[in-house]
Every structure is written in C-alpha cells, then in structure tokens.
Write a structure and sequence with these properties.
Chain lengths: 361, 370
C-alpha cells in the first residue's frame, strides 16, 4: 500500500511541474469571443445561428473566433471576462441570462467592444451594442400563414418559457392569425422548458385533440416534440429561429427566421470596418431581413445542405418540394403582400413583449 | 498514541488512493482528448491553471465548491443514519427561492437584520422540505428515496415554473433582484470596509474577478458543526446507531423516528443554505438554471468524502476545482462535452475505488480469521 501512495504522490508532483508550462496565445487581426447560452451548440436554433454568423465572418472577413459553452450560469461572467482580459476585440454574449454578467464585465473593460444578443438594455454603455429582433413581425406572417392553411379554423402556439421575450412571438402569431380570420380559434400553451421535446409533444398532441391543424412553436428544443406530434398526427407545424423545414419533411410548412447569424455577422463586420455602433439597442426587422419567413415557393439552401450532408433523403427533399407547391405556394402572394404592408406601416403589429400579454385571450 | 498513528495512517491511505484514482481518470481522459486532435498536456495544464494557477483561480475554486460542499453535507449526514437523501436539489431550490423572495420583498431593513433573516428563512423552509420525507418515513414508513425524488419535482414546479412566472412582467425569467441589504459579503468589496481593508490580502481580493463570498465560510462552519454533532454528541451517536442497525437502536432505547425527522430537517436546511448562498451571494436573484444540478452532484461529493463532514469539504473542493478548471479547458480548445466527460471519469474512478476498498477490507478480514 505504501508503494501505491508514494507512486501517486510522485505522479502528482511530476504533473504539477509539467503543467507549469503555459502555451502562448497566437495573435491575429480581429479576434471575436462568444459565450453561448446554456443550451449550447446543437440546439438547431439560437446558438447554432450565432455560430454560423461567426463562421461566415471567418470565411469572408478573415477574423478568428473562439467560443465557450458554459455549463451553468455561474460561468458566464468568468467566460466573458476571460475573453476581455485576453484582448479579444469583440466579446459576444448570447441569451437573457448573460445580460447582468455582460454589463458587469463591460464596465471593467471599457476599451473592449461587447455585443449582447437578445436583450435590450436601458442606458446602453458606449462599449455595448445589443442585437434584438422584431420577432412579432415575423411571427405575424407565421400566424397569417397558419390561418390561411388551416382547414379546421383552429391553430396552436407552443411557447418555451412564459415571459416577455416569448410573448413577442405569441403576440405576432396571434395578431397574424386574427388578421386573416377574426373567428379563428388560437390555442396557446407554455412548456416552461426550452429543452424538453417530450413535453412539447404532449402539448401538441393535446392541441391536435382539440382540433388544431397548424401549430407554431417558439420553444427551442421543446419544439422538436411539436414536429414529432405533427408528423404522427399528419398536421402542419411552423418552425422558428433557423430554417427547420427539413426536420420533419413535408410537415413543416415554413419557419420564422430570426437571423441571428446575419446580426452577428453584421456586428463583426462593423468592428472590422471601424463603424461599430456602441451604445445602441439595434433592432433587426422585416424591413432589413433580420426576421422573415422561409420561402413559400422554393426549397432554400439550408434544406439543400441537409440533403447534401445526408440528413434527409432524396425522397424527403422531393416531399418538401411537393408540399411547398401544393400547400404553401398558393398563399405566397398573399403573404408577400402582408409583409409589404407591415414594412410600410399599413399593418401595425403590437409587441406583446412591451405591451404585455393581454388577459383572457 | 498508537491509536492516533493508526488513524493518521488510514487517512493518508485514503487520500493516496483518492489521488491515485484521480490520476487514473486523467490518464483515461487523455484517450478522449486525442479524439479531438488536441494535446492532453495542454488540456490538463489548462485544467490545473484554471483551478489553481493563480490566487484568483484558487479563490474562485473555493467559490465554486461552496454549494457542492453544502449539498454533499446534506447527503452525507442522513447517510450516516441509514437514509438516502436524493432531495437536496429540491431543498436547495426551496431555500434559494425563499431567500430570493425575502431578499427583495423587505426594502428598508438594515443588513444586520435583513441578511440573517433571509438566510434563516431560506434554511428553515428548506429544512421543512427535507423534514417532510423524514416525517413520512418515521410515521408512515414511506421510503425516503421515493419521497425526496417526488418532492424534487414539486419544488421545481413550485419555484422555477410557478414561482418565477409570478414575476414574468420584469422581462427576465428570475425573481426581482434582491436588495443590497440582503446580499452576502463578497471578498471583492473588502477594501470598502474600514477595518477589513487593512488586512494583508485585501489588495489581492479586490480584483474584480473574485467571486468568493461569505457562504464558503458558512459552508465550512456547517461542516464543522455537523462533524461535532455526528461524533461528539448524544444525538450523533443515536443517529449513527440507527444507521448501523435501526432495530438494534430501538431495542437499545433510541427513538429512531425522532432521529430520522431531526436528521432530515437538518439536512434539508443545509441543502437550503447552498441555494441561499447562490441567490444572495452569486446571482443576486433566484434565476432559472442557478441550481445547476448541485443537489445531484452532492450525492457524488458525499460518497467521495466517505460521508465524513471533513471528507465532504475535500470532495466539494475536488468538484469545485473540476468545474472552475473545466471552463479554462474550454478556452484551450477542448469541447465542453469532453470537459464534462473528464469530470465524469474522475467521479467514476473515485466511486469505483470505494468498491475496491470494500473488497480489500473483506479480504483483510478473511485473512485475519485464518
């Protein structure tokens, strides 16, 4: 036994000595550090989109970037601070949990530029820019499309967590559906969880039982369960954030795009071109393509990519194409018209995130 | 004299074995790091530097260990009485939520009243949450594992789903921020106090990145109190007797049911303190995700610490170091999945070691007979 112990101690000592050597960090032109929200990469929505934006910036602008997926919220501040202290030019934080930490760290490093995705601040400091999205405008289109394609006059909304950010989606969807059909019935439920597909499926199945035949989700990973329910019960679903149309081929008629990748890319570009707009809450809207609906007539690149890397088969790609032709293409002009009316202000969409969610819907 | 040197020897053996299993875990971990095309040496040096490489790193390792020590204690204490408390997670949530509410609701109390009030309220509610399965066990013989697991779900629903939703108008999925008067003392602010700023380390502590707060010391004090309670008091003796043989203890005149309720109440309160510290010291509001599974990790901490209060401190420090250094590993380019895997390997090997030790003890016992 003694041998074992002394061996262990020697081992530990050797390791400590070895660890003392620190690798030096390489220097490049513009370096971007991003701290993702707790869901991390692979959420097929928010974090993945931010990551795509940086990949694009890496290819087109020649920047380099590093990312961190915190295991829990107590790591946010440490991660942000590490990027700032290592001299990164732009430090990005994703998700509402990060807001307080980002403000704290930004105050300590006034010469570093920061960006926060998804929460507007009051009195934004000069070295922070917040990237926000007019989800209510995009969701309005999703609501209108749902009402147009619904045969039962009954549509559903599944939200992640019941708070202001998700109310923006719900509000847009609600107003859009009512705009097309004032008598439409809209079921609305919150899963209280962004990562629980089983719960998403339960909720969607319940809504289908009560007559819904188009369901829109704003619930991150929970939404995967909504797609599954749609596939099982042969109804339609609408995706969110990224182009999710290939996840359940033929059952997802469109996705409400929240172009986090574009916003992130634009911010990096502004830093590279020296016109970073610090001190502002930026809103990305329908007008500048920051939010949008996927094309109702043609199959777009993310779906083709999914075919090319083998996620979906040729038949499934064909199913999607056929579905677009039969189900959504007839309404393409109508939706384009509505989009135009929102952009030029003829339709005013209320932001439930600010006005609050109306009682007794 | 001889008795003491035997004891020291056995403690050293334990420590050496634990260290050995950590090293084995790291060696197995290198295989997985090779999968990512990174150098294991870089990865482990990052782990070490992140956890112990600087004054700041060490202090923050203490900070990350705090909730783990407390949940570890909350599992270890009932374990000694033969009870398996899976409910530390729920008790942590109840304690944290209560402290968060007390922290923002009272707007004009001085710190000297507000902070202790918030801490005690959180611990008390969490204690009740832990005591309930104790009562069920003692009076109705409901198995404590089932009861505590179910109470975890109820606590999650009550605090995260229902509780936070009450405050959804604030725009963030969290309770409102607590008042300054309820915040735990943070070592970062040391040089803002007249007496403390003259202490030797105050300059080092005032770096902005220092997150260590009062709760670490409360955790250590809790461990010492529990150690005293367990080994130096009648109650502790009774607890251990019940854990050893409940029927025998009853026969010997110990009221098992009273001990069970008491131990579960204390354990709940200790787990609650973990949540209280996270809310009043780290996040300043009860927010979604702040529990981070500490209640469940606490089970591993307690087992690694051999359910001895002082061992639990060491176990908590190990896990805290893994958490604190894990982030640094990500900075050296190791994906977070591999970081988690290495953390899990350490737990696995340390746990496997316990089995190995039981085997050794058995063999020794046999040898003794021959």
């Amino acid at each position: 036994m003694k041998k074992v112990i002394s061996l262990a101690i020697v081992f530990a000592f050797v390791m400590m000595v070895v660890f003392a050597a620190v690798p030096a960090a390489a220097q490049e032109d513009v370096r971007v550090g991003i701290v993702l929200s707790t869901g991390g990469l692979g959420d097929l929505s928010f974090n993945d989109a931010a990551y795509r934006g940086l990949q694009r910036a890496e290819e087109e602008l020649g920047i380099s970037f590093d990312y961190i997926e915190p295991a829990d919220p107590s790591e946010d501040q440490t991660a942000l601070r590490r990027f700032a202290s290592r001299g990164y030019d732009l430090v990005i934080g994703v998700g509402f949990q990060m807001a307080d930490s980002l403000k704290t760290v930004a105050a300590e490093y006034p010469d570093t530029k920061f960006a926060h995705v998804d929460q507007a601040f009051e009195n934004v400091p000069d070295n922070i820019v917040t990237l926000n999205f007019a989800e209510w405008e995009g969701s309005f289109l999703a609501g209108a499309l749902a009402a147009l394609t619904s045969e039962s006059g009954n549509v559903g909304f599944v939200g992640g967590v019941d708070f202001a950010l998700i109310h923006r989606f719900e509000g847009g969807f609600y107003q859009g559906a009512k705009y097309i059909n004032p008598d439409i019935e809209i079921q609305s439920m919150y899963a209280d969880d962004f990562g629980n597909p089983a719960k998403g499926r339960e909720i969607a199945l319940g809504m289908i039982d009560d007559g819904a035949d188009v369901i829109y989700h704003a619930a991150g990973g929970t939404g995967m369960g909504v797609f599954q329910a749609a596939e099982e019960e042969d109804i339609y679903a609408i995706g969110v954030d990224s182009n999710q149309n290939y996840i359940a081929p033929g059952y997802i008629i469109a996705s409400m795009l929240k172009q986090v990748d574009k916003a992130v890319f634009d911010t990096v570009k502004s830093v590279v071109n020296n016109n970073y707009q610090g001190g502002n809450n930026l809103y990305f809207t329908l007008a500048d393509g920051g939010v949008d609906l996927t094309s109702l007539t043609k199959v777009e690149q993310p779906v083709l990519d999914a075919y090319e890397n083998g996620t979906i088969t040729k038949e499934e790609l064909e199913t999607i194409r056929q579905m677009k032709e039969e189900v959504t293409a007839p309404y393409a002009d109508r939706i384009a018209k509505i989009k135009e009316m929102i952009i030029n202000g003829e339709i005013k969409v209320k932001n439930w995130g600010e006005t609050g969610r109306p009682e007794n819907l | 004299m001889n008795k003491y040197s035997d004891k020291i020897k056995s403690v050293l053996t334990d420590l050496g074995l634990s260290l050995l299993s950590i090293i084995v875990a790291l060696i197995v971990g290198t295989l997985f790091i090779y999968l990512t095309d990174k150098s294991p040496l870089d990865a482990y040096s990052a782990l070490y530097i992140g956890a112990f490489g600087s004054f700041r790193a060490i202090v923050n390792t203490l900070w990350r260990s705090t909730p783990l020590i407390l949940t570890g204690l909350a599992v270890a204490l009932p374990f000694r009485a033969g009870l398996f408390n899976i409910g530390a997670e729920g008790q942590l949530l109840m304690g944290g939520f209560t402290a968060g509410i007390v922290g923002f609701y009272f707007t004009s109390l001085p710190t000297i009243i507000h902070l202790p009030f918030a801490i005690i309220a959180g611990m008390f509610v969490a204690g009740l949450w832990g005591g309930l399965p104790g009562v069920l066990k003692a009076k109705l013989d409901v198995h404590e594992v089932i009861a505590t697991i179910m109470l975890n779900y109820i606590a999650m629903a009550l605090t995260i789903n229902y509780g936070i939703n009450l405050f959804k108008e604030t725009g963030r999925p969290a309770t409102p921020r607590i008042m300054k008067s309820a915040a735990m003392f943070n070592f970062n602010n040391m040089n803002k106090y007249p007496f403390l700023k003259d202490l030797p380390l105050s300059d080092l502590f005032s770096q902005p990145a220092i997150r260590l707060h009062l709760n670490f010391f409360l955790a250590v004090i809790a461990a010492v109190i529990l150690w005293y309670l367990l080994f130096k008091t009648t109650l502790g003796y009774e607890l251990r007797a019940v854990g050893f043989n409940p029927d025998g203890a009853e026969y010997g005149g110990i009221k098992a049911s009273k001990s069970i309720i008491t131990v579960m109440f204390i354990s709940g309160a200790v787990a609650g303190l973990a949540g209280v510290g996270e809310v009043l010291g780290t996040h300043f509001s009860f927010m979604q995700g702040m529990d981070a599974g500490y209640g469940f990790t606490g089970i591993a901490v307690a087992l690694i610490g051999q359910t001895h209060p002082i061992g639990v401190i060491l176990g908590g420090l190990l896990f805290g170091a893994l958490a604190q250094g894990g982030l640094e590993m990500q900075f050296s380019g190791i994906p977070s999945e591999i970081v988690m895997l290495i953390q899990a390997l350490v737990i696995f090997f340390v746990a496997a070691l316990q089995v190995f030790k039981v085997y050794l003890a058995k063999r020794k016992a046999k040898g003794g007979v021959e």
